[in-house]
Amino acid sequence: MNDFNKHVKSDTIKWIVVFTLLIVLMAGMVASILLALPEGEPVEEEPLDEKPVEVTADVSAEIFNSERVSLAMAAEAMPLAADGATFTKTLYASVLPSTAQNQKVDWTVAWADGSTDTDVEEYITVTPSADGSTTATLTCYQPFSKDIIVVVTTREGGFKASCVCKYSGIAKTMNIASSSMSSAGTDTYNIGTSYTGTITFDLKGSFGEAASTKLSYTTGAEGSLYFGKLVSSRATGSFVNTWSDVTLKDLDGYFSKFITSVSLSGTTLTIKTGFHSPSTYYEKSTYEQWGPTWTYTDRVVTSSYSASNVTSQISANEKAFDSCYFWVKVTDSNSGLNKTIKLKFSDNVVTGVSVSPEMITI
Questions:
Q1: CA distance 94 to 96
Q2: What's the number of CA atoms in the CB half-sphere (13 Å) around residue 224?
Q3: Beta 338-345 vs 325-332: how paired, if at all?
Q4: Residue ranges per domain, the chain?
Q5: Window from 13-27, 32-46, 221-235, 292-306 with minimum mean pLDDT
Q6: Architecture of domain 52-167
Q7: Which of 171, 162, 169, 152 is nearest to 59 (CA)?
Q8: 162 phi/psi in degrees, rounded to 5
């Protein structure tokens, strides 16, 4: 009996040891699985959108985020030098999750196509605000034609996010390079009837290079004149003028009557005028031989056709002629820059040339 009890007690101890070993083994397996999981699991955070960042400055960036680190770029560039020789943008990295203890990252910059023939840091550098900082300054030194990639890498886990930098060459200045028309003041030019004039614009980027442009224009006029219906007839002796329906009208609605054509080719604006100036304009004329009688509709009231009932209107128009002008506003939609050109009719513009004699016999 004693031998039997001893045997049973021995088997019980063996099973206890087996079960204990099984429990330890399972605990080890669970611990190994937990250790293999990425740090921070199972924290759930919304992934950031992978889309281009819309910016208005010279360098734009297309952002590619990962589940563990994301990038953002400041929208506006900050000039480093007064002459615009360089400019900077700020890059922001976000390590995910935000509760991760190690937030340190490293920044690198390289040509996106992997080439090494030119030092990329001659064009762009990225400098963290401190060692491992998630904020860095991107500095552009000169225009570049190929894409440049900036990569941020977490020191823990090696997670990466990147942005592809492109140089768009958006204009920073817009000036008038040349004009075939005579100047009448700042951005103001004299024009005549049946006249063609051109203006060429000069748009420069941050580094003085020719900028990418997308030009368009709008038109209008400033000033008001009196218009009316004129009947000029001669029964005996001189003509007698009769005005009716005299009305003060804005010239804005008459732009196409005077400036017959406006066009843009590249950065050159071409303007063409009709055969009327504001002081000679009328919409329509008819002639009746018996009288004889001339009838003008929508004619500008002038002293050339004076009458007692339009004395004040003639005086008002004579004063207004010098202040009236037509304008063309040219806008670069890439940069938002614009220039408004004022056009004033003048009797002093060049209308032709002749030589005398036309033939010389020697």
A1: 6
A2: 8
A3: antiparallel
A4: 52-167, 173-345
A5: 32-46
A6: Sandwich (2.60)
A7: 169
A8: -145, 160
